[in-house]
Fold Bile acid:Na+ symporter, BASS family.
Amino acid sequence: MIIDLLGRVARYGRLCLVLGLLAGLILPGVAAVMRPWIPELVSLLLFFTAFRVGYRDATGVDLSKAFGQVLILQLALPVGAVLMLIGLDLGLGPLAMAVVLVLAAPSVTGAPNFTILVGGDPARALRVLVLGTALLPVTALPVFWLLPQIGDLQDVLWAAGRLTLVVLSAVALGFAVRQLAAPDLGDRGRAGLDGLTSIVLAVIVVALMSAIGPAFSESPLGLFWWLSVAFAVNFGMQVAYFTLLTVLGQDRNAIPMGIVAGNRNVALFLVALPPETTEPLLIFIGCYQIPMYLTPILLRRFYARALCSD
């Protein structure tokens, strides 16, 4: 009965995300209470994602073709951005660091679902999600080393090591529980788990929006600036990557990779970096959730171009 109820929730996954966004905006007190639990919530979502995918499906797909995409998205882009900022002597303030961390982050766990909602094939998004999350501790290390806010080499190694432990532990536990408890999940089980994941995503969104309410009270124009940057980075990356792949004749990959390019799980870094580093970024991270969860609504027509060209 509970599984069926969660399956019904899955049908309204987009509505759950929108409700989470609204709750984070109108209930700042609740968001503030949940804020300290963000690392645990992110770890829980990783566990559910690993449980949903399963070890066999995660390792059974051809990940070799996704390896290059992960290196471009999570290593080349952020390292290139940092080197460009340093070369132009623009500094690495909160805004620049927020953008770099977005570029260094793997795909959000909802990327395959977003791909489905805009009419694309989620298989490629799933492959990049699995491989990108697994390689994150490795790809993040050079980025951490280039960011002076992280600290010295010992701090960098500690942050990367902690990130490795969290990601691998959550994913390994999810795979193990799936293998022992539900090796054949079935359509009904997947639907129920999708509903549960939608709820967890909505709860995480509430917690991530904890800085939005106070920021709006203190400086509405400042919040509007951060929100504008979040939309520009998210939608800009999606449009740019989608357009590039379309020009290269990779129309079938353009939708899932466009989704992945802009929708990054930057909240993962909250479990690894020190609070004094992430505190100034919470406003941006909160704002970033808005274009992320509005992607299936606002960019559906844009991505429809690839479907029409097939």
Remarks:
- DSSP finds 17 helices and no strands in the chain.
- The mean pLDDT is 79.
- The chain has one domain: 2-309.
